[in-house]
Write a structure and sequence with these properties.
Length: 100
């Protein structure tokens, strides 16, 4: 990916925000391990596909949550400091990857 505006968040995540995202990612991690076990035990393909769909939905939800926070804090701060266009372009570039 290209050059990002900031290496670290302008407004660090609160402990509650970190915990919420990490907990969601741990649940997704468990779902992925579950699919691995399903494949190992020769489960029905449709059952596996349903679980993959659930994981995709969960990842999108986490991505939207992180993106929302980024807009409310990082992009908002960038607009206030005159770097809004660059921050918006950066976010649009990343969002394009979500639509692939």
């Amino acid at each position: 990916m290209g050059q990002f505006l900031h290496e670290h968040p302008v407004t660090p995540r609160t402990d509650a925000e970190k915990t919420a995202v990490i907990n969601r990612l741990k649940r997704i991690e468990g779902q992925v391990r579950g699919i691995q076990k399903m494949v190992e035990s020769d489960r029905y393909c449709i059952d596996i596909l349903v679980q993959i769909s659930a994981i995709n939905a969960a990842l999108k939800k986490v991505g939207l949550s992180v993106g929302e926070r980024h807009m409310k804090h990082c992009v908002s701060d960038a607009v206030k400091t005159g770097e809004g266009d660059a921050a918006i372009d950066e976010l649009i570039d990343v969002m394009k990857h979500f639509s692939k």
